[in-house]
C-alpha cells in the first residue's frame, strides 16, 4: 500500500457505478492526509514518477514500443492545465508528448474526428498527455448537438474499438475525468477575471457554458458508463482540492508505469572492454 493511502488510488477513483452528478467534488478519496502532507508527497512522489518515466524513455530509445497516455477531460477550470504543469512538470520534458485539443480547425473538420488524435499518439518510450481528447466528440459535440445524435451515438463503440487497438499497440491509457463543483468553477472563473495574469485563460463562452452544466454531467456520465473498459478504465477525480487532484494523478501514473515492469536497458556494448579503452584513451 502506498504511504498515506487507505486504498490504492486506482480503487479509490474507479468509475464503476458512480453517479457523477452526486460526486463530492471536495472529497479526497483514499488519501488519509491533509493539504500540507499532500504537497510534501507531491514532491516526493514526483521524483518517483520521474525515475519511472526516465526508464520508459530509456527503453523507448532501445526500441521498446510501449508508451503511456494520460487523457485529461474536465470542464473549464477543472484543473487540467495544473496537472500538466505540476505533475507532468516533474518529469524530463524530452520524454513528454503533449497535445491539447480545441475547437477543430478547418483542416481537422475535413477529416474523421479521430484523425487529429491518431496523429498525436505517443511514440514508444513517451509519456503522452492529452489536454482534452477524442472524448470532446461525445461531450461538447453531444451537449451542443454539433452533429446529429445518429452521428455521435456510434462513437462510443468506435472509441472503445480505437482504444483497444491502441492498447494492443502498447499504449497504456490512463483516463482521468476531473470535476469541480459549479460553485468552485465560479470562484475560479472570478479569479480569471480579477487577475491580469489569468485573463489569458478566460473565454467569455465559459460563462455561457455554465448553463449547460447538467447536460455536461449527463454527457460525462454516458462517457464514463460506455467507455470505461477493463483495458482503459475511467478514473473520476474530485478536483476542488488541487493538491489532491495533482497527487492522485501522480499516483495513477506511477501505478501505470510500475505495471510495465520497466528496468534500465542493458548495455549493448562490453562494459569492461569500454572501461579498459577509456582508461587507455
Ligand atoms: P480550452 O481547453 O479552454 O483551450 O478550450 C478548448 C475548447 O475547444 C473547449 O471549449 C472545447 O469544448 C472545445 N473543443 C475541443 N474539442 C472539440 C470538438 N471536437 N468539437 C468542438 N469543440 C471542441
Ligand atoms: Mg478554457
TrEMBL record:
Residues 37-259 form the Polyphosphate kinase-2-related domain. Pfam families: PPK2. This is PPK2 family polyphosphate:nucleotide phosphotransferase. The lineage of its organism: Bacteria, Bacillati, Actinomycetota, Actinomycetes, Mycobacteriales. GO terms for biological process: polyphosphate metabolic process. It comes from Nocardia bhagyanarayanae. Keywords: Kinase, Transferase. GO terms for molecular function: polyphosphate kinase activity. The keyword Transmembrane does not apply. Gene3D superfamilies: P-loop containing nucleotide triphosphate hydrolases. It comes from the Bacteria.
Amino acid at each position: 500500500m502506498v504511504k498515506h493511502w487507505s486504498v490504492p488510488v486506482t480503487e479509490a477513483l474507479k468509475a464503476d457505478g458512480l453517479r457523477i452528478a452526486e460526486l463530492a467534488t471536495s472529497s479526497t478519496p483514499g488519501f488519509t492526509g491533509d493539504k500540507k502532507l499532500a504537497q510534501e508527497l507531491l514532491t516526493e512522489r514526483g521524483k518517483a514518477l520521474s525515475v519511472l518515466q526516465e526508464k520508459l524513455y530509456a527503453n523507448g530509445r532501445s526500441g521498446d514500443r510501449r508508451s503511456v497516455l494520460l487523457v485529461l477531460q474536465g470542464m473549464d477550470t477543472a484543473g487540467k492545465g495544473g496537472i500538466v504543469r505540476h505533475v507532468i512538470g516533474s518529469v524530463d520534458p524530452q520524454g513528454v508528448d503533449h497535445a491539447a485539443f480545441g475547437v477543430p480547425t478547418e483542416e481537422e473538420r475535413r477529416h474523421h474526428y479521430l484523425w487529429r488524435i491518431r496523429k498525436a499518439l505517443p511514440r514508444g518510450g513517451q509519456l503522452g498527455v492529452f489536454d482534452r481528447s477524442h472524448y470532446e466528440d461525445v461531450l461538447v459535440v453531444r451537449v451542443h448537438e454539433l452533429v446529429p445524435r445518429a452521428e455521435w451515438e456510434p462513437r462510443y463503440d468506435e472509441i472503445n474499438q480505437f482504444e483497444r487497438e491502441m492498447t494492443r499497440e502498447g499504449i497504456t491509457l490512463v483516463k482521468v475525468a476531473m470535476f469541480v463543483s459549479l460553485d468552485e468553477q465560479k470562484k475560479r472563473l472570478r479569479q480569471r477575471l480579477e487577475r491580469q495574469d489569468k485573463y489569458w485563460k478566460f473565454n467569455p463562452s465559459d460563462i455561457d457554458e455554465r448553463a449547460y452544466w447538467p447536460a455536461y454531467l449527463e454527457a460525462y456520465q454516458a462517457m464514463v458508463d460506455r467507455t470505461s473498459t477493463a483495458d482503459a478504465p475511467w478514473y473520476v477525480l474530485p478536483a476542488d482540492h488541487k493538491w489532491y487532484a495533482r497527487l492522485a494523478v501522480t499516483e495513477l501514473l506511477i501505478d501505470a508505469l510500475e505495471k510495465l515492469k520497466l528496468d534500465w536497458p542493458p548495455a549493448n556494448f562490453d562494459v569492461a572492454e569500454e572501461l579498459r579503452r577509456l582508461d587507455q584513451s
